[in-house]
């Protein structure tokens, strides 16, 4: 009985903690960025960056796919994201610097949520700057981003898979990650800033899963060259 109660508490507390973390991040600058119209950021030295590992090719994927998705792997992480119609194509990394110092020239994923193929939300964020997620912000300002609905988002993973998602929602001025945390289907969230550093509301672009297919190692492992942006 005691074990059952503890298990129930854990199942309820874990999502709540992630939601609280998301609210904290949105409100305290970890995922807030500078104006999209500012000049290129000043490059500073990144102390350390460990490239994502190559996890192997098709021989390591297990017995086929399940429900249109490759067999779930706990060590799978997203490595690249692209919205070709908007000119977006970025390596994706896990930010390891102290809070308040998001990187430039890459996108970053939120480790507290899911990864492609896990049947949950994959959450990717990047600056609203030239060469990053600026096109999402600019498009969102035109008829609330209506032109982005239906666009395809490509996401590559560390075990050499390509996941395709279709944009279904453009959410402006959002304040938390509640829907991403609570989702129980394969979905993708892209986030960027809507204003200068310290602006709390964020732009979220949501996409639903379409398909997955094997990808080449070269496509799935772009060279990431993150650098600290001058906030």
User: How is the biggest beta sheet arranged?
Assistant: 8 strands, mixed, barrel
Query: What is the averaged pLDDT score?
Result: 77
What percentage of residues falls in helices of 4 or more residues? 10-25%
Q: Would you list the SSEs in sequence order as H and E?
A: HEEEEEEEHEEHEEHE
| Percentage of residues in strands | 25-35%
User: Which architecture does the CATH hierarchy give at level 2?
Assistant: Beta Barrel
pLDDT < 50 stretches? 1-66
Form type: globular
Widest beta sheet: strand line-up: 3-4-6-7-10-11-9-8
Q: What would CATH call the class?
A: Mainly Beta
**Rg, alpha carbons:** 18 Å
Specify the structural class: alpha+beta
Describe the protein's architecture and organization.
A hairpin with a 3-residue loop joins strand 8 and strand 9 (161-174). The protein has one domain (2-228): Sortase (Sortase, Chain: A, Beta Barrel). The chain has helices at 2-28, 134-140, 178-182, 217-220; strands spanning 65-66, 69-70, 78-83, 88-93, 103-104, 107-109, 121-125, 152-157, 161-174, 187-193, 202-214, 227-228. With 231 residues, the protein is of the alpha+beta class. Strands 3-4-6-7-10-11-9-8 form an eight-stranded mixed β-barrel. A two-stranded antiparallel sheet has the order 1-2. 19% of the residues lie in helices and 29% in strands. The chain is globular.
């Amino acid at each position: 009985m005691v074990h059952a109660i503890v298990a129930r508490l854990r199942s309820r507390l874990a999502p709540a903690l992630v939601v609280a973390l998301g609210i904290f991040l949105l409100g305290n600058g970890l995922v807030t960025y500078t104006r999209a119209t500012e000049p290129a950021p000043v490059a500073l030295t990144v102390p350390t960056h460990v490239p994502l590992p190559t996890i192997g090719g098709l021989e390591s994927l297990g017995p086929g796919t399940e429900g249109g998705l490759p067999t779930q792997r706990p060590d799978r992480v997203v490595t690249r994201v692209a919205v070709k119609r908007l000119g977006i194509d970025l390596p994706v990394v896990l930010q390891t610097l102290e809070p308040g110092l998001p990187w430039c020239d890459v996108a970053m994923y939120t480790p507290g949520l899911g990864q492609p193929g896990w049947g949950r939300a994959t959450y990717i964020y990047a600056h609203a700057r030239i060469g990053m997620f600026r096109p999402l912000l600019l498009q969102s300002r035109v008829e609330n981003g209506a032109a982005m609905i239906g666009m395809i988002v490509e996401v590559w993973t560390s075990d050499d898979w390509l996941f395709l998602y279709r944009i279904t929602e453009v959410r402006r001025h959002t304040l938390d990650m509640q829907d991403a945390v609570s989702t129980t289907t394969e979905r993708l969230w892209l986030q960027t800033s809507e204003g200068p550093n310290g602006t709390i509301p964020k732009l979220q672009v949501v996409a639903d899963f379409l398909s997955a297919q094997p990808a080449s190692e070269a496509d799935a492992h772009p060279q990431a060259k993150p650098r600290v942006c001058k906030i």
